[in-house]
Amino acid sequence: MARKLLKVPSLKRMISSPRTDKLPDFNDCSTSYVAEKGHFNVYTSEGKRFMVPLAYLDNNIFKELLRISEEEFGLPGDGPITLPCDAASMEYVLSLLRRGVSKEMEMQLLSSIFISCQSACSMLPVEQPHQVAVYSFF
Known about the structure:
This is Auxin-responsive protein SAUR36-like. By secondary structure, the chain is mainly α. Helix content is about 45%, strand content about 5%.
């Protein structure tokens, strides 16, 4: 009987301890490299990690980010998925997806992603053969 009484206070401490049942913050960089169930981790070009719900894989905006990532960084074998955007842009995209984005807004965001990707790609140095300017006078 005395042993039972000794166990009761420890049980009481377990019950009164605060619970952490809050929803995960998708913008939060967790310390674990393993994503929670139903999520996956992606990294921005700056190296910030985001935990993203698997449901977002069906969204056109996220599909486009992954396609551009594949073109820019290739498919990671064992490494992380890196998206071609900074942390602020990723937070903005995730906040839009969390709220549910309209088709019109989705199309605008997709076109801005496409335009920014084109401008970034056009800044890359491209070797061109030497050309000589020829002037003609009429």
